Structure prediction request, 300 residues.
Amino acid sequence: MVLKNKSDCLTFIVDTIHSIGYETKGASIACHKLAYELALDGNYVYIFNDPLYPHENIEVIPTVKEVMNHELNNFVWEQFMFNLNNTISIYPQTTFGNQFNTINNVMWVLHDFQEKQWSLISDTFHIFNYGSFKVPEGTIQHQLTVFDYNIDKFYNTNNPDRKGFAHIFHKNTPDWAEEFLKIFGSTEIPTYNEKKSIDYLLSEFNKYEYLLTFDDKSFFTTAAALCGTKSIILNPNKELTPIEYRLKNPIQMCGVAYGFDDIKWANNTIELVKENLLQLEQKDKQTVSNFIQYWKKKLL
Prediction:
């Protein structure tokens, strides 16, 4: 939908600044996908680097990234005009404070909170959680989930030579991981060695029977399952049962084992992965619709 009159719609500033140079990271994709969904609904959206999902209601504010040192960057963007009364800034947790000096602000919880970040969030911020990430006890929050499931890009090629184990080193990988995985004769899929394309991952996932990972919240497990590869999450939280894990992480509902003792579930549900994701996609769209209505009731 294209907006008819900018003054009659909501304006959103989606903080994509920290996605500059990290466009393939999950949080970056989420912010750009949200910008697209908001624009698609007929709202006006500002972002700060080239859109991963272009739409004519999205305007890019030219932004320069100045590298200060290996841990600190400074960002300088061109000044832009917006109506304070009907503009909402959406900040991921990589942002500290209210950089755009807007009145209406959202903190989008994309990972478990850290005290140093949370201490800079004003009481006036509206909290929306991407999923079931941990926030301080008593926090009033709402749901906002957008996800590019790539349902038609990851698929089972029915490779007759599929066999063995592969692994991905991503988050939560312990020091002993490499030695441990030798037991399985597992092959690493080097997703961050300049090989990030969907076609590459499609090819790799279709080679193996099982994918091993220590990351319990990665889309790699679901992408692999779409390709017919059962995923196994290693070193699971012993205080969390597989059922509890799946309820907290619905994209891993099918084709994914939460620990080796859960392999039977992955084997039995591998054919249900796409159906599950299609249902989740509809639920995600409802959270976006609810988010827009939430602000329309407040500002329009």
Remarks:
- The chain has a mean pLDDT of 90.
- Helices lie at 26-40, 115-118, 177-181, 198-205, 219-226, 242-248, 263-269, 273-299.
- The CA atoms of residues 48 and 209 lie 41 Å apart.
